[in-house]
Amino acid sequence: MIEAILIFLALAVLFGLLLGYASIRFKVEGNPEAEQIDKILPQTQCGQCGYPGCKPYAEAVANREADINQCIPGGNEVMIKISEITGLEPKAMDEAAAEPKEKEVAFINEDLCIGCVLCIKECPVDAILGATKMMHTVIEKECTGCELCVPVCPVDCIDMIPPKVTPNDWKWPEPNFLNEDDR
Prior knowledge:
By secondary structure, this protein is mainly alpha-helical.
């Protein structure tokens, strides 16, 4: 019995030493340029750039497999920072991406929801709650407004709406000064 314990102990120490050596010897360094790009991306994981998340997009840009102007939520500001990191020339954003858009979040009409869970599978940030054959709802604070859930809904019960204004995020309206001719 003691011999078996000693054998297993010796094997555990041997395998531990081998794994420690292998972790040092075969260490894989990440691409530092991809890490820098990933840090400046908005981390919405929306997929609007054509990649499943911000990290894969950053790696594609660092490997020169993707354009620097594909991050729609980041807009021109992020594109310019990416161009500075990569040394590539800034490119104009698509017209749809270049115009600033008011933030919207998904809203599920719970009376129409059939509980198919297609929207839950599509949501990259897990902002939709629900279960099969049960109604679903959106966690408004978690929703990034990527609109990926809208086209997959078979009953069109998902709408994109501006988030509710609360006392914590209310802002003064822009002043609307009338022209002298309008007075």
